[in-house]
Amino acid sequence: MSNRLSPEVERELADLMAELGRESPALAERVGTVFGRIVGPEPDQADFISTGEAAAALGVSPNTVKKWVRQGYICDFWTLPGSGYIKIARAEIARLRAEGAPGVGGPR
Known about the structure:
The structure is a single chain. The chain is mostly helical. It has one domain: Orthogonal Bundle (Multidrug-efflux Transporter Regulator, Chain: A, Domain 2). It contains five helices and three strands, in the order ααβααββα. Helix 1 (7-23) runs antiparallel to helix 2 and helix 3 packs across helix 4. The radius of gyration is 16 Å and the shape is elongated.
């Protein structure tokens, strides 16, 4: 499972860090360093695919994949900070297929 944050939390954190950076750049840098240790390094991008690729592999729409991320059904993902662009772990696709996720293989 990834330590990545939801897109909403990442946006809120980016806003807070920007505000802190204006007030106290040194403190913002220290907080960013500590936060980076909590969240961990960026995952290897080769192990992740786009929501569109995930949707095609699962036979659902990209919006369904995004909904599953929001609902917590897809747990291993990361977002490009500040963009909301979501990448899904290839291992999650295999897990969803094995568990028979709602809508997998059904009509879009």
